[in-house]
Design goal:
The chain is α/β, with parallel strands linked by helices. It has a single domain (about 5-125), classed as Roll (Chitinase A, domain 3). It contains four helices and seven strands, in the order βαααββββαββ. The chain has a five-stranded mixed beta sheet. Strands 1-2 form a two-stranded parallel sheet. Strand 3 and strand 4 (about 70-75) form a beta hairpin.
Length: about 130
Amino acid sequence: MNKPDIIISSDDLERLEGLLYAPAARTRRELDGLRDELERADVREPADMPPDVIRMESRARFHDLQADRVYEFTLVYPGNAVPDSDRVSIFSPAGSALLGLSKGQIIEWPTAEARTARLEVLEVLQPA
């Protein structure tokens, strides 16, 4: 599975690394995917971030290409996530897969339902 190029801000990287390497999260293997994403990301200063890139606290719309459904949610830090809502934790598989994607990019990843999800980023709105 080809992974698309991703861009993250240095601010998001610093805060996420602090969370990932804290004692409570350091040994959590389910977070290895997020660690891998951060290692391969193109890191930029916040002022140099393109406006259509999913960052922490961004609101984004996606098209699930398999289910032909459109979803919208906000990417948040773990403490701000709300189960069964439109606030998705960066520590979730979906959240870590979507960080750093730009409008028009497509990502594939295995879901809990044993299928492969294919999501296309339709729109990204940055927090005010």
